[in-house]
Amino acid sequence: MMLQKRDYKFWFCPGSVDLYGDEEIRIVTEHSRKIVDEMNQSGLVPYEIVLKPTLLTNENIRKTFNAANEDENCAGVIAWMHMFSPAKSWMLGLKDLRKPLLHLHTQFNEEIPYDTLDMGFININQSAHGDREFAYMLARMKKEHKIVVGHWKSERVQKKIGDWMITAIGLVESNHLRVARFADNMLNVADTEGDKVEAQLKFGWEVDTYTIVDAADAVNAVSQSDINILTDEYYDKYGILLEGRDPQEFRRHVEEQARIEIGFERFLEEKKYQAVVTHFGQLGGLKQLPGLAMQRLMGKGYGFAAEGDWKTAAMLRIVKLMTAGVKDAKGTSFMEDYTYNLVPGKEGILQSHMLEVCPLIAEQKPRLEVHRLSIGIDSETARLVFTSKQGEGVAATVVDLGNRFRLIVNVVDCIKSKKLPKLPVASALWIPQPNLEVGAGAWILAGGTHHTSFSYDLTTEYWEDYAEIAGIEMVVIDKNTTIPEFKKELRMNEVYYMLNKALC
């Protein structure tokens, strides 16, 4: 499965000072071990936390952080100053650190022991000011990081750490993300364009373009026996809707999508790509638009977008990686804004695409159908048809503004759609928060694209963490958004990024 990741772990790095003696350091280490053990057993952190030796000096801090950089299984560092730890000792290590960083502002004891409190206790339990010393250096160095405040036993604190872990995985994997584009962008379309060099510098995304002939060669090399096996899997897994078609003819059209799925997947696996982009206008060598095939690849964890939109394909891959660590995840998909319902009190946006919507978001068992598609290749084309689950989700997109990238995130409410008997594609119907007027208006003001990566399982906080660590602008559209305040935010962001560029 494409969602298999490294055996990621997170390093827990307590800080202290060699001031009071060995016994105090031993206590710090024991307290840190207990915190790590209980967090690992809590069920609230999705990845293992590994305790590192208590850090005291410039030398061992720097060695530890550089080791974290080199360890492919280390996805991030959690730092905590149990005792006061002079921040100059952390400077060079923090300067070198390239992995996501979380600053846990906690203390071992939950309550002040009023009756027994003495200077010995205070000398050891100094995180109230030790963490402030550490935080000053982070601020001075403008080091991007996550801050979590509260007692380490708190479910809220552990959940926040767990959520950050999920984002950190997305960021680490982002640095290894490779996107294969078959053909270029749709002619004259602007919002799917972008600076691929800057994207690789900023996010780590490697975007390579191939001709559709390269894919077609891989597709045409697939054996009939392999096609038969996968087609049988389709028939076992999905509902078959013949609609009066000859069963043998129907299967032949389905087999063509099996051929495409196998061919594309082998190409991507061989060349180590995790996301793929197609374009309906450039399909020479294929017999059908890759519909069912791309739906299936998304279901396996590949990022996907259409019409050359490499940014959304990369984003979807990241979303799938992040949500792979979420318990009972409801699904993610490539989406496109299609048409509005503007009836007062029933406003909404129908989301769909020509064929390519991920089946993981389906409310019920998808139906395997064959219908004529005249866009690109005029052919009978197999696809999965369904409507989406209901519930709150988040739509996200990255736009290239020329001088920076902007991440736009909109919280949406997916609602039950009426039946669409003459629309043979997968779809979702949602209301952007706070409502259609404000949500759609703010999205347009921000330059939001018509393609999105959608998830039921991520919140805006995941994306806030991602944007902060990646060092990009982010705007959120949710139930609290108003157009006047949103305009102010966009103007202030413009000033900030222009000044930031001038000062760099």
Instruction: Summarize the main sheet.
Output: 6 strands, antiparallel, barrel
Q: What would the average pLDDT be, to the nearest integer?
A: 92
Span between N and C termini? 42 Å
Category by helix and strand content: alpha/beta
Radius of gyration: 25 Å
Q: What shape does the CA trace take?
A: elongated
Count of helical segments? 15
The total strand number stands at: 19
Task: Count up the domains.
Answer: 2
> What percentage of residues falls in helices of 4 or more residues?
25-40%
Explain this structure to me?
The protein is an alpha/beta fold and 504 residues long. It folds into 2 domains: 9-174, Rossmann fold, CATH 3.40.50.10940; 178-503, no CATH class. 40% of the residues lie in helices and 23% in strands. It has helices at residues 22-41, 58-70, 91-96, 119-124, 127-141, 155-174, 196-203, 212-220, 224-237, 247-271, 292-300, 310-323, 436-445, 460-470, 483-503, and strands at 9-15, 48-51, 74-81, 101-105, 146-149, 178-182, 206-210, 239-240, 275-278, 303-306, 332-341, 348-352, 367-373, 379-385, 391-400, 405-415, 427-432, 451-455, 473-477. The strands form 4 sheets. It has a 6-stranded antiparallel beta barrel with strand order 11-12-17-16-15-18. It has a 5-stranded parallel sheet with strand order 2-1-3-4-5, sandwiched between helices. It is elongated and about 85 Å long. The two termini are 42 Å apart.
